[in-house]
Amino acid sequence: MNNRGTVTKDAVIGGSTSRPTDEELGLINAYTRRELSADEVYVFSVVLCDNDVDRDGERFTVESLFELEKLFVGKTGIFDHNPSAKNQTARIFACAVESGGGKKTVTGDDYFCLMARAYIPVNPDTAAVISAIDSGIIREVSVGCAVERTVCSICGEDIGMCPHKKGEQYGGKLCCGELVKPYDAYEWSFVAVPSQRQAGVTKSLKRKEVTMEEIMKRLEKQGGLNLSDGEREKLCAYIKNLKSSAKDGVYYRDSLSAEVLRLSAAVQPEVSRETMDCIAKSLSVAQLDELKRAFEKKLGNSVMPKPQLYTSKSKKDSQSNREFSI
């Protein structure tokens, strides 16, 4: 797996390579700007992927192969997953899931593969590629696609959310990651080293991003926890944010508690500061805020205490020296 979350699998160029049939030529010309003749195109077969366990301990389910059968029609063939227009070499014009005629996978299931038919225009620029295919120099290819989940073949949970490990036996059954619900196919590439043993194509898979909620569900489960590098980084960032939020929360609570103690001294001085401090420590932030607002309301409705040296002038005093006024 690379840093972008893609995984490579493999398959191989195989089957017949020949001139297209009339039916195939019709399918090919659906992608061309002008009608090409049979002499202008070179067609060949390629096994894109299968349902056997590959070197990464993963496999497509048969249901996934049938989904990919629809997704890969029309996809471009390039070299080494280099998405350059100059790198476009071939195009798939037909796909079909085929059985292995009694062949079994390493898990004992019936073997199925996704077989594609592709074409290359015949011209001086493509002569070297066509020659390399015919001579067996170019055999392996890699497909780029996206799947929603990789589930454990033992328990059916997401492969990182269960205690089972790929490649190990559980009750006589091999654990592997099953690639399910493919939702997009990008391209297929000629590559040097494939990962699937039986096929000649490598498949690159981009999974949907795992949410923090899903990672937290794994933590709640008993048993081992397997996290990818990306998931580990996400969890560490989440914990860091929690620490920062917790620090802010402590500061806010301390400020709120201090304000409650100050208001308490004003509205109920008969309660000692020590007693009020113990009460404040036992309350939640919401309860402290409620108490603060109650104290503020009570303080606003009460008569403010007068200064110790304050004296009120009576009406008599105010009129006593009126006869001396000018």
Summarize the structure.
The chain is α+β, with helices and mostly antiparallel strands and 326 residues long. It is built from 8 helices and 12 strands.
Strand residue percentage: 25-35%
Roughly how much helix do the residues carry, as a percent range? 25-40%
Structural class: alpha+beta
Number of helices: 8
Number of strands: 12
Report on the architecture of this protein.
With 326 residues, the protein is α+β, with helices and mostly antiparallel strands. Helices cover 32% and strands 29% of the residues. It is built from 8 helices and 12 strands. The strands form 2 sheets. Strands 1, 2, 3, 4, 5, 6, 7, 8, 11 and 12 form a 10-stranded mixed β-sheet that branches. It is elongated, with a radius of gyration of 37 Å. The N and C termini lie far apart (102 Å). Mean pLDDT is 79; it is low at 1-12 and 195-205.
Salient structural properties:
single chain, 326 residues, alpha+beta, 10-stranded mixed sheet, two-stranded antiparallel sheet, 29% strand, disordered N terminus
